[in-house]
Amino acid sequence: MATVNQPGLNHLDPSPHAAELMARQLKGENAAVRELLLALSVGFMLPGPLPADLQRRIDGGEVESLHALVARAEQAGLLLDGTVIGPARHALLTVAPTAKVHALQRELVTCYVEDGQPLGDFARELARGGLADLRVAAELEHAADKALEHDPGLAYRLYDEALLAGADETATAARRAQAAAADGDLDAATRIIDTLLVSADPPDIRRGVDVAAAVWAQRGMLARSADAYSWLGAARLGPSAALAVVSLVGCGNRAGADALFSADAPPASPTLLAAAMAGTGKGILQSLSGDPEQALPILIHASDMLNSSGSALPLPDTPAAIAATMALHSGEPQLAEAVCKAATAAGQGGNAAKPRLFLLQAWSAMQLDRVDDARLAMNEASKANHWPLVPRDQFLRAALDVGLARRTGDIAELVMAWERARDAMLHTSVDLYSLLPWGELVITAARLRETRRISHYVDEANRLLSRLGDPPLWGVPFHWAAVQAALLSESPAELAPHAAALARAARTSHLAAVLASAGKAWVSVLAGSFQPADVEAAARALNRMGMPWEGARLAGHAAARTEERKDMVRLLSCARDLHPQSAQGGNGSTPGEPRAAATDSGNGLHPDGSGLSEREKEVARLVLEGKTYREIGETIYISPRTAEHHIARMRRRLGAENRSDLLARLRLALAAENPPQE
């Protein structure tokens, strides 16, 4: 009988290199040891079952007993606790013919199947190793199906491995595309779904159209999403009819939505998921009705149910995002923020939906005048998944940049943000759910005298609202943006239709009534003929509707234009109440009455070496931006006279002889605020 000291089984050298060399040299009298080790390397386990051929030879006495073979392998250092050591396993699998390895793997799969045991992760190893076996493919496909709605990234990898094992590429296409889209890989989802939709009699067609519609929506082309559902037709829509409503109404096709979905119809099944989808469609149709206030609770309920289901379905938009958008349109940014936070925590819509939910949180914070919170949420959106923002979300992000720059009065940043937004506009289109960012860009275009670059988008938005019957819930904020733009452009002709739209909507919409009143106040302020009490009432009403910055801006502009000191003090106090950030860093002086900074040192210099108090530095930055006394006052809510006093004191303190000298000295003073580090 062969012993462990025979040639090719030298056990005295335990190094990995020696083990690999030894494994490669197993032949002749050691062939049975080699067969046992190869079987164990493939995945068979001791004490058995073993490959049928090896077991037959052991039982027939053609080779040594299993105990003897194991002992020899262990003494040779090739086997430890029933496991082939790594270098030896690698060598055996490398040297053995691929056909032999695959034959052993198939035999092992048969053992698993006959014993009723799942392959588990071993199926993934087999597929990645190149084994084509429909039983392996079926198990991987089943595992992917289970992961699809809860972990789409894992599902996508499992489907790919199932293809390697021989799964039907067309049969799994819709599910693979769903996994890719839910994980945020729109390009992969598009390639898969395009191949499916052009095939003859494509399987799982409804799911495929759901994915296609979701991808088009994320690309900012909601009309193409609606086209996909129209192509599918009512007969094949089934429970996806509610999702078709999202797309069709979003691009202005109310008649098409009504033809495919009945708000009174019960859910397709008594499940959370079906109820959430039906509620989404019903809420959107309700938002177009004469009683739109009922739409928001319906959509919030739909969002809650989808949160509870834990599903990541392909959706043109999530019920949480639609509910948050609707809340913002209704003057309830706090509610919008709460809905988005709950949906984000629950993972509603999967990784693909996270950036949009964070960006809507940012919009809520911006509207509430919480600039830092808005920027934080925008940063969260950028790192929510490992893919770049999709065009729809990139457009929303660009509009947020513009809005924040406009609210902070940073003209240089506003111009740069506007250029980025212009690029983002080219990659998206106007739809019902993007009217807020379009409205922000309308105002900024007027501010920068760039209205011509956005006029055709404004026309499209007006046509969209007209096709839907100009629903107040959706149209009021856009008309308010157009009113502000017309005021900036000093264009009565452009102001009239939007002011009239607000007046009509005021009969049924409280927000419209507030905005119509604010619009009248703005017109009177710019005309120089206004009642301070009316302006203050309009400003505080804007604040109550979740628009504190807009209210403070109205009061601040009015304060700069009043002749009476008591009215100026009253309006400035109102502006500061609504926009407290404007008073931060100030010197605490009474509005309109400058006084020396309390932090000045004995030599008249601020402790940081700039020579300016905090309020003076704020004024200095605005002077360097080229703002007038009135514009400075409107920006930081002080009177023009107070701004003039600040500038005169800075000129004396810095020893400036004229305006150009003052500008140079202010630049040096502000540079001293942040000296270069050694």
TrEMBL record:
GO biological process: regulation of DNA-templated transcription
InterPro entries assigned: Sig_transdc_resp-reg_C-effctor (IPR016032), Tscrpt_reg_LuxR_C (IPR000792), WH-like_DNA-bd_sf (IPR036388)
Ranges where the record places region Disordered: 579-616
Keywords: DNA-binding, Transcription, Transcription regulation
SUPFAM superfamilies assigned to the protein according to its UniProt record, in alphabetical order: C-terminal effector domain of the bipartite response regulators
Domain HTH luxR-type: 605-670
Keyword 4Fe-4S: no
Coiled coil start-end: none
Source organism, top-level taxon: Bacteria
Matching CDD domains: LuxR_C_like
One Pfam family of this chain: GerE
Annotated GO MF terms: DNA binding
PANTHER family: DNA-BINDING TRANSCRIPTIONAL ACTIVATOR DEVR_DOSR
Protein name per Swiss-Prot or TrEMBL: Helix-turn-helix transcriptional regulator
Species lineage: Bacteria, Bacillati, Actinomycetota, Actinomycetes, Micrococcales
